[in-house]
């Protein structure tokens, strides 16, 4: 994954195309260009008359340049960065700020590709383009560096919440009553990625990670789940309810009203007239982390005791000083 900063100063996560996929895309385009070149030369040879060698060489060079430069130039300009080879591999050429390319970007890439990357300077071996693409961070060849472009992947494997199994219907009513405002996005993303890849983990590691994530989520979600809820089922229920609320907030596109299983059951009346206060809910997946110890209290000074009351209105002074006359 790589990050690009668009014109609005917003960072976007994109997956840049690496050398193997770009090589396959270029091989398909090169096969089409070579076939087109031979077809044009064959037609000219069959339809042309007797010409001198100099004119034939000039015409052949013009046709070669027109095919190897014009083919990617026209395709990437008209389709905003997608040639037939890139379309087959799910790639697209974009600017380094994430925007679509225009004619000048496609022209710089085409000329650099024909002269430097894959053409004259590389002796039509592609050595310079392969070396530069393998040594740059974003797999950019010389044409990309000159034009300010990068090749990204458009078709990615679906690894979001759509690939997760549905939540347990028995937890639907409880999930609807959950308070999810304190659940941070990064923790929800971590839980989602774990559930997507849980089947690829070893059983001991899977159980350990599930318990740890469930404890972290339960510390921020109330009320606690029913007793005996497995950690993975708990995470599925929380993430499913969070997704349903987010879809409803955005307008409910693609999502219908909550199913009947999401209806909250009516609480049973409490026959006790004065119920005792409920203790603070505890996480069923482990105790929450203890708060850090606070500073020790500062001792306060104890005031001296007040002198005892005497009945003598004029006690004799015990220390020296001025005494009124008798």
UniProtKB/TrEMBL annotation:
PANTHER family: SLR0254 PROTEIN
Name recorded for this polypeptide: RDD family protein
Sections of the chain in a coiled coil: none
UniProt source species: Actinomycetospora aeridis
Annotated membrane topology: Multi-pass membrane protein
Low complexity composition-biased segments: 317-326
Organism classification: Bacteria, Bacillati, Actinomycetota, Actinomycetes, Pseudonocardiales
Boundaries of every RDD domain copy: 17-148
InterPro entries per the UniProt record, alphabetical: RDD
Parts of the chain that traverse the membrane: 24-48, 54-74, 111-132
Domain of life: Bacteria
Main location class: membrane
Localization per Swiss-Prot or TrEMBL: Membrane
